[in-house]
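Structure (tokenized):
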């Protein structure tokens, strides 16, 4: 029996991305997000416009999309309920968010230089995608303060162990263990359930 419901959120299970961006004073910011999807060489990022990351991306137009694998879940969770924004917006204060400017230190993660963009990469993440923001669109109602940002991929860095042993430009889905957020809880992927006909033609 299907019921009609009015859920507050529709986080149906997507990989977590750690976005590194540059604050106005040149220091790096790092924020977890999971409203991201990929097509071709583009990524659509869904962000609240009252966050520091949105402000940084709208101003600087560049970032690194760092993909944490499941074993980084504690580091990601240490960044939950933090914002680099000061003062902390009222609605976030009510939810118990703290102002944290040094996000790398808070997470216990290591910044390393990027090759094209100014924000640093996260050493411990096995996949780093340097990207520039090419378009920004508001979404939802005005009182939701949400936007999608279209990021164009500039360069992809991948830990060698994740590469397919035959095709060195492919990431092996057998080896990549993304951290998944589903309805605000953390999960990993299960085992492969069926061979894919589509995978054979690409
Ligand atoms: C696992 C996880 C996933 C999140 N996903 C999103 C998201 O998709 N979009 C978003 O705007 N905020 C998301 N957040 C909340 C932001 O991280 C939060 O708003 C944070 O304060 C942003 O930091 P900043 O203000 O320093 O940029 C997520 C948080 C966690 C812990």
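Design, position by position:
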């Amino acid at each position: 029996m299907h019921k009609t419901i009015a859920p507050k959120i529709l986080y149906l299970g997507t990989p977590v991305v750690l976005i590194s961006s540059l604050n106005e004073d040149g220091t790096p910011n790092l924020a977890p997000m999971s409203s991201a999807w990929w097509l071709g060489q583009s990524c659509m990022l869904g962000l609240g416009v009252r966050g520091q990351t949105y402000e940084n991306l709208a101003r600087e137009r560049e970032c690194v999309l760092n993909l944490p694998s499941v074993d980084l879940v504690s580091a990601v969770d240490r960044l939950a309920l933090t914002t680099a924004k000061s003062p902390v917006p009222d609605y976030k204060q009510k939810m118990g968010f703290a102002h944290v400017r040094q996000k790398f230190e808070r997470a216990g993660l290591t910044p390393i230089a990027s090759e094209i963009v100014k924000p640093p990469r996260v050493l411990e993440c096995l996949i780093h995608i340097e990207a520039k923001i090419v378009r920004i669109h508001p979404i939802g109602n005005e009182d939701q303060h949400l936007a999608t940002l279209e990021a164009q991929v500039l360069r992809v860095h991948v830990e060698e162990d994740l590469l397919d042993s035959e095709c060195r430009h492919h990431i092996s889905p057998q080896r990549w263990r993304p951290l998944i957020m589903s309805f605000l809880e953390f999960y990993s992927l299960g085992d492969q359930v069926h061979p894919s006909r589509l995978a054979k033609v690409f």
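Reviewer-requested clarification: The radius of gyration is 17 Å. The CA atoms of residues 17 and 67 lie 5 Å apart.
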